[in-house]
Amino acid sequence: MLWETVKLSVQSILRNPMRSFLTVLGVVIGVAAVIAMVTVGNGSSAQVTSDVESLGANLLTLQPGQSRMGPGSSDGGAARPFALSDVDAILDQVNSVSVAVPTGTQSIVAVFEGENYQTTVTGTQNGYFEARDWGLSAGRLFSSAEEKGKSVCIIGETVRDELMGRADPIGQKIRIESLNCTVIGLLEVKGANTFGMDQDDTVIMPFKTFARRIAGSTDVSSITLSVRDGYSSDRAIDDLTALMREIRRIDPGEDDDFSVRDTAQIAAMLSSVTSVLTGLLSAVAAVSLLVGGIGIMNIMLVSVTERTREIGIRMAVGAQASQVLLQFLVEAIVLSTLGGLLGIALGLAMGAVGSAMLNVPFIPDAGTIALAFGFSGMVGVVFGYFPARAAARLDPIEALRH
Amino acid sequence: MPVDPSGDRAAKIATDPPLIEVRDITRIYGTGEAEVRALDGVSFDIRPGEFVSVMGPSGSGKSTALNVLGCLDSPTSGHYLFNGVEVGGLDGDQRALLRRHYLGFIFQGYNLLPRTTALQNVELPLIYKGMSREERETRAIAALDKVGLAQRAHHDPSQLSGGQQQRVAIARALAGDPQVILADEPTGNLDTKRSVEIMELMVELNQSDGITIVMVTHEDDMAEFGSRLIWMVDGKVESDRPTKRAA
User: Fold this and answer.
1) Helix (H) or strand (E) holding A385
2) Element (H, E) at A7
3) Which of A56, A89, A275, B170 is 20 to 30 A off residue B8, Cα-Cα?
4) Residues facing residue A164 across a β-bridge
5) Is residue A292 part of a domain?
6) In sequence order, what DSSP letters do the residues of A211-278 get, joined into one string?
7) Where is the ABC3 transporter permease C-terminal domain positioned along the sequence (chain A) (predicted)?
8) A336 lies in which domain range?
C-alpha cells in the first residue's frame, strides 16, 4: 500500500509538472546553495593549503623587527638587519635547519631590446630554490663561481613573457638597473600565491651580485630557511630564536627584535578563516531551505483546497482518513525529495562552475550531500503534515459538493 | 447472482430479508432557531435486488437520505441497519470500509478525477481494496467493457462526452463489486437520449447482476425505470409504491 501510494503521488506530481517544479523551487535553491557553498568552500580550503605549501612546505623566514598583527605593528624599518655571518652561524649551530640563505629583494625595471618591465629582483643563493621547493623548467642553477658575484640571473615565466614573449630566454642578456646580466635559467610556473601575488613575476640573482650592484650594501634583509626533515618547525623556531638572541645580544626579559614566520601557521590561519566563511554562507543557505519548506507547505495547502473534490471522491470510494493523510504526506515527501535531488545536481553543477571560475579544485562533500538530501525529505514530513491533516479531516459530503 | 425468470424474481425479492433497514431516522443541522430537520422520522426497508427511485421537491431531504444510506453522513437519531449491522455505531474508518466493500456511488456531476484516464478512474476503488496492479486492470477493463467503453480506457475525462463520462463513473461504481449502487441524479446533466441510455444500463445492472440500486432523481420519466418509488416531502416519506413499470 505504501509503495502504491508513492507511485500514485509520483503520478499526481507529474500530472502538473510546472506547478510541481515551482512548488519545490525553494527547496531546490536551498539545497543547491548549501551544496555549492560547501563544495566551493572545500575547494578554497584545499587551494589555500596547497598554495601555502607551494611557498615551501617547511619554509621559515627570519625577518628583522617584530611582526605583530594589527595597526602600527611594523617596526621592521628601525630594526637591525642581519649579516652574512648570521647565516653562517645558523648553518653551523642550528641542527634543525637544513637550508639557510640570505635573501634581499628590491623593486627594479628590467630592460630587454627596448622592452621595459617593472618587477622585483631577489638576491639569494641556490638553497633558496630548495627551501621554496622550486625547480627550473629550463637552464641551470648558479655555479659556485657565479655565486661569488657574477652577472647572471634566473627569471620567472611572467618576466620572460613580458620581455621576450615565447622566445628561449637562456643566454639572453637583460639589463637590470645598470647591470647587464645573462639569463641562465627559467623558473617553473608557480602561479599566484594565497594573497594573489604572481610568484612568477620575479628575477633571481646571486646574493653577492645583488648586494654589490643593486642594493649597494651587504646587509641581509631576511633569511630564508628550511626545517630539516624529522624536526618540527616549532623546534626550529625555538633554536633560531635562542641563537639570534645570543648573536644580537638581547638581554633576558627584553623583546626579540626579529621574528620567524612559519608557512604552516599561515596555512592553518587561512584555512580556519575559509572554513568560518563557508560555515556562515552555509547557514544562510540553510535558512533558504527553511523558506523553501514553507513554500511547499503553502502550495500543498492550496493543493488540498484545489483537490477537495478529489479527496471527496477518494473518501466516497472507500479511502480512510489515514489513507488520505498518508497520500498527501507521501506526496509532500516525494516532492521535496525530488526537489532535493534536483538541488544536489544543480548545486554540484554550480560548485563545479564556481570552482573552475575561482581556480580552486572541485571537491564535492558526500556528507553534506547526504545531509541535504535527508533534510529535504524532512522538510517534506514537517511541512507536508499540516496540509495532509487538513485533507484527512475533510467531511466527504462537503468535499464532494465543492 | 443468476438471472431469475421475472415472475420468480419479484417473489424472491419480496421474501428475502431486507438489505437496508431504516427506522425513524432524523438528521438535524444547526441548533435552536436555525435548526433544520432535513430528515424527520424516515422509515423504510430495501430488499436485495430492488431498484428504488427517490423523488421529492428540493429540500425534501432526498439527497440527505441518500448520503445517510451511503454512510457519508450519520443520522442524528434512529437506526440504520445494513445487512443487519447497526451503521450508527460505526466510526469514520469503519464507515469507509463499508463504502469500500459494499457500496458504489454515481453522482450528477460524474466526479471523475481530471487528467486521469478512464481506466485509472475505474481502478481507484480497487486501489483501496488492496488489489494488485494486474487484478485492478483486469477488473477495470471488464467494468469498462460492461458499460461499452473498453476502447476508451486510455482517454481522459476531458476527451469524453457527458454520457461517456457518466458511463465511466458507473464502471467505477461497478468495479468494486458492490451490493448497492447509490445514484444522485445520475441523468441530471444529460439530454433525454443519453439519459435513457444510462437508465437502460442501470436497469441492466439491476436485472442481470442483481445489484440493488437507490436513485435520487427529479425526473418522472427516469424514476419510472425503477421498480419502486419513494416520494419525500419535508423530510418525511409521503408515499412508497411500486412504479408503473413494475406494476
Assistant:
1) helix A366-392
2) helix A2-14
3) B170
4) none
5) yes
6) IIIIISS--BSEEEEEEPTTS-HHHHHHHHHHHHHHHTTPPTTSPPSEEEEEHHHHHHHHHHHHHHHH
7) 283-396
8) 2-51+268-401
Contact A376, A336 (CB under 8 A): yes
Residues on chain B bordering chain A, Cβ-to-Cβ distance under 8 angstroms: 67, 70, 72-73, 92-93, 96-97, 99-101, 105, 107, 111-113, 115-116, 124-125, 127-130, 172, 176
Q: Kindly state whether residues A177 and A290 are assigned to the same domain.
A: no
Same domain, A120 and A242: yes
Cross-chain Cβ contact A313/B124 below 8 Å: yes
Q: Which position has the higher pLDDT, A160 or B12?
A: A160
The ipTM is 0.91
pLDDT band at residue A76 using 50, 70 and 90 as cut-offs:
very low
Which of the 8 DSSP states describes residue B129? T
Distance from CA of B176 to the nearest CA of A (A): 9
- Name the grid cell of A28: 531546490
Q: Which of A2, A317, A393, A402 to mutate to test the interface with B (most CBs of B within 10 A)?
A: A317
Prediction pTM value: 0.70
Would you say residue A56 has pLDDT above 90?
A: no
Same domain, A195 and A114: yes
Residue A225 to residue A239: CA distance in whole angstroms: 12
Specify whether A88 is located in the same domain as A109: yes
Residues A187, A134 contacting (CB under 8 angstroms): yes
Q: What is the Cα–Cα distance from A292 to A27, expressed in whole angstroms?
A: 4
**Residues B201, B195: Cα–Cα separation, whole Å:** 10
Same domain membership, residue A85 and residue A36:
no
Q: Which amino acid is at B33?
A: E
| Nearest CB to B176 within list A309, A317, A322 | A317
Predicted confidence (pLDDT) per residue in B12-46, tens digit: 676 778 999 999 999 999 888 888 999 999 999 99
Within a domain: residue A76?
no
pLDDT averaged over chain A? 86
Instruction: Report the alpha-carbon distance of residue A273 to residue A213 in Å, rounded.
Output: 42
* Amino acid residing at B133: R
Task: Give CA–CA dist B25/B215, Å, rounded.
Answer: 19
State the amino acid at position A211 in one-letter form. Answer: A
C-alpha cell at B69: 444510506
